[in-house]
Amino acid sequence: MNNSIIGMAAMYILAGLMHFIRPKSYMRIMPRYLPNHKALVYLSGAAEIILGVGLCFPELKNYAIYGIIAMLAVFLLVHFYMLSGEKASAGLPKWILILRIPLQFGLMYWAWYYLN
After folding, report:
1. Cα(80)–Cα(61) distance, rounded to whole angstroms?
2. How far is CA 105 from CA 24, 58, 98, 100, in A?
3. What is the pLDDT of residues 86-101, one digit of tens each?
4. Where is the Methylamine utilisation protein MauE domain (predicted)?
5. What is the DSSP string of 28-49?
6. Res 9 pLDDT > 90
7. 37-44 contacts, C-beta under 8 A, 24 or more apart
């Protein structure tokens, strides 16, 4: 297995764990129109962990990659929501919020690159 895909797996596993360690940080940035923020934070954290682990198994890797790409597409809702106002931005500068959008597409490409 390639070191880069191991790094990707570790990144998603750690990011997913953070949803359980610091859920309030994620609940603050949830769009108001989405229901049950706490459950969605935990669900998205679990998804990141499961997909990260899936990258480590050759028979699951492609499924995990498609899941990661779909998950990152859904997370774009949060990134655009954070641009909607001062409170939604969680105190981050606008330039960082704008930079996060192309970063999402870069992460999608990074995952797509490892499809067989």
Report:
1. 29
2. 26, 24, 12, 9
3. 888 888 999 999 999 9
4. 6-86
5. TTS-TTSS-HHHHHHHHHHHHH
6. yes
7. 44/16, 44/19, 44/71, 44/75
